[in-house]
Each structure stands twice: as structure tokens, then as C-alpha cells.
């Protein structure tokens, strides 16, 4: 039987393993950590019984992904839950822009900018299913829907600082800039609007749900499905060279998928990798980092705006101009006084995460790559800014800086949870210029991590595309 080894058990590695197993290959997944899942793990970080997502928390692409949706993961216990409001972006004057599956809820929160939002973002939401077929894959392909893709591309190519000029007031400007800041990059550069358009449209198309029981439910379901297909996952095995795969599995695999960062792929493949590929992967750039803060709080966050108290995700950064300035500082390696902060209130949709009157609060700030300071105070100050009295409700805290995140998951080089800088070049072509970006120039060896198209997010598409590339060559 043809055999395959997948190194790394993040969602991309597991989806790639499942696709290979579906094709009849004998599949083994090797994971260095003591639990599978990569960025899709959940832990009790602050108090017994309180469930905190270790990294990935909200999954607009998860429910829409053509890699995950067809797998029937509900049979393995995966269930989605939605808050009343998917996303809120509060402002200092007490107003807030809201993102909801119900487009009219968003439009009402934006007042006179509702019509512009419908024209710009609403159209992308209408086209989302057709767009996904072209956007969430390598850029070098024959478009299936060229008209919709062109219409999207004209706006996606704009800097965020230009696109928000279409809005007259801050609720819409801040809301869009806050979503676009998931780029982890400068918002005054071309292509920076692409992430904001896709994530906002996905929110209108399917919301920003959470996995019931924590994000680990996604990886648990994928592992269970793989087992039913005859595949296995072995934890506690760190792979540093291709030759070790034979020692771990007893034979030389016909296919190898590396769910790793490009620098790890270079080390594992070693001298077998052609010099041109090695040079390209060595030049691959990593981006800004995250500083994660998990809190146990007594009750709820006392947000000034009542609608924010119903939102699963909250973006904190103030005006669009303030967010853009903070992101520029981070990219330049300087820690802003008021960083862009994401707050997760997953327990509003999934009450199983709370216990004994305490609720888990998930948060992180954008910080410079490899940042060695402590951003705890900056995060707390941003929350307190829009929720006076919040500090009094904090019972316990757990913090993870960039080095801690890299230790938790080696793919997060320097704390970069996006697995690569989202520069204009790397947004459209990652990890290198190639017709097939999953190949590494070595027969049977492929890269399937978030460093490959379509990039970060819990969607499994990098693994699916890499597996399809491997199968096409068998």
C-alpha cells in the first residue's frame, strides 16, 4: 500500500492526511507536542473548568471551507455556536460598528454609511461562494468566475487607508479597519483591504462562530475521522530530518506533507532541496507577533456600549487612523502605546466554557516580531478604555508572549501566528513564486502549512490543496 507521513497535526496537516487516507494511502501523522491540533487546541489556562482557546478562536472560514464542510465533522462531535452579534468595534464616544450575519443589523449600526457598506462589503458577501473558489487557492490558475474575481480584486488591491474614505463616519471606518487588521501588516499598503473584505463578507455570509467545547473540538473531530479512515496520529515525535520518517514508521513513505513553517521545512528536507527552492524559502518573511492574555473574570465585561456586551468578538483600536498608525509602528518593530487588541467573549455563544460564576476572556495584542516585553498592561488599558471598571472583575490571568507562542507551536516563528508576513508580495504569492507552491523540489515532499495558499485561518485548505498536488503526481 502507498504510504504517507504528515509532519504536524494542525488543521492543515490533519485535512491533508484525511484526503490522502480517502484516496487509499496508509497515513501516519507525527506531532511533536503532547496533543494534536497545532493552533486548534483548548486548555484550562486560568481556573479549573474555564476553557480558553490556545490560539484560533473564531471560525468564519471554518463553516464555509470546502475542505472542512464536506467532511461531516458533526458526526464526530463538532458543533458550531453563534453569539447574538458576531463582532463589535466600540469607539470612545460610546458608539460601535457591528458585524452580523444579518446584514441589516450592520447597516443600522453604521447609520448614513450603511448604503456604502452594502455596496462595498455586501456585494462581496453576495459573491462569496463564487469568489472563494478563486481567492482561497493559489493565485496562478484559470479563474472560474472572472467577473466576480475582477470586481473583488479592484477593491482588494486598495490600501485600507484609501478604501475607508468611502465611509463618512468612524463606526464604518473603524469597523472595516479593525477587521482588516487581521492582516497583521501595514494598512496603508496595496492589497491590505483584501483580508478586511473577505472576513467581513464571511461574517455576513455565515457569521463568526465558535466551536462548542473549544476550538479543540475541530482537531478532535478531524483526528477521529482520520482514525475511521485507518490513519494514525502519534504525538511526542519531533521530526528534524526526512531520514527520521523511516525510523518512526518502519518504511520510507511515498508522500510527505510538512505542516511546518518554511524554515523548518528547509531544515527537515536538508540538502535534498534544490538550491533555488532553498533560497526562496530562506527569504520567506515572517510578520508581527501576538501577545496573548487569557483572563478569568467575575461576570461579564462592563462595556460602555450595550451592543458590545452581546458580541462574540470585539476589536479594540479606536478610529481607523489610530489602528493604521499602531499597525505601522508594530511592523517597524516599535511597540505602540495603544496597540490593536482582539477580545474574545466565546462564552456568550458557548456557555460550556464557563464555571463557578467565572467566565473565560480571550485576548491578544499585535506586537513587534520577537517582542520581549510585557503587553499585559497595554491590553488591560485598551479594554478598560471601552469598559470602565473592567479591571475589578479580573480574577486570574495567564500570559503568553511571542517566545511562549513559538514554544507552544514552532510554526509561530517569532510569535507570528499568521505563519508569514502579509506583505503585498506574500499575500498574492506564498511561500515562493511557483506554479505549484506546495512542492519543494523533492519527489513526494510537499509543504501544507499556513505559509502556503490561501494562508492563515482554520479552513484546512492548505492541507487539501497540498494533498491534491501529491495525489496528482502519484
Textual characterization of the structure:
The chain has 474 residues and is of the alpha/beta class. It folds into two domains: 3-43 and 57-79 and 211-283 and 423-473, FAD/NAD(P)-binding domain (3-Layer(bba) Sandwich); 82-116 and 158-210 and 287-408, Polyamine Oxidase, Chain A, domain 2. The chain is built from 17 helices and 16 strands. The protein has helices spanning 11-22, 103-110, 114-126, 128-135, 146-156, 160-163, 170-180, 193-206, 216-228, 243-249, 262-269, 275-282, 320-331, 376-386, 402-408, 424-428, 461-473; strands spanning 3-7, 26-31, 42-43, 52-53, 80-81, 85-90, 96-99, 210-211, 232-235, 255-258, 289-298, 311-316, 341-344, 358-367, 394-400, 445-447. The protein has a seven-stranded mixed sheet with strand order 7-6-12-13-14-11-15, with helices on both faces. Strands 9-2-1-10-16 form a five-stranded parallel sheet, sandwiched between helices. A two-stranded antiparallel ribbon has the order 3-4. Helix 1 (11-22) links the parallel strand 1 (3-7) and strand 2 (26-31). It is globular, with a radius of gyration of 21 Å. The mean pLDDT is 94. It comes from Mumia flava. InterPro entries: FAD/NAD-bd_sf. This is Phytoene dehydrogenase-like protein.
